[in-house]
Amino acid sequence: MKKVGPAAGDVALVKKRPGHDNKYSMILSMTGYGAGIASSDSFRVTAELKSLNSKYMEVTLKLPKVYLKYEHEIRSMLGKRLGRGKVVALLNIEVLTDKVQRININRSLAKSYLKELNSIKDELNLAGDIDLSFLVNMPEVIPTDIGEENEEEWNLIRQAIELACEKLISSRKVEGEALNKDLTFHVDSIGSSLEKVVALAPKRIERVRERVEKSLDDIRDKVEVDPNRFEQELIFYLEKLDINEEIVRLGQHLKYFKEIQEAPKSNGKKLQFLSQEMGREINTIGSKANDAEIQRLVVNMKNDLEKIKEQVLNIV
Question: CB-based burial of residue 292 (10 Å sphere; 0-12 exposed, 13-18 middle, 19+ buried)?
Answer without folding.
Answer: exposed
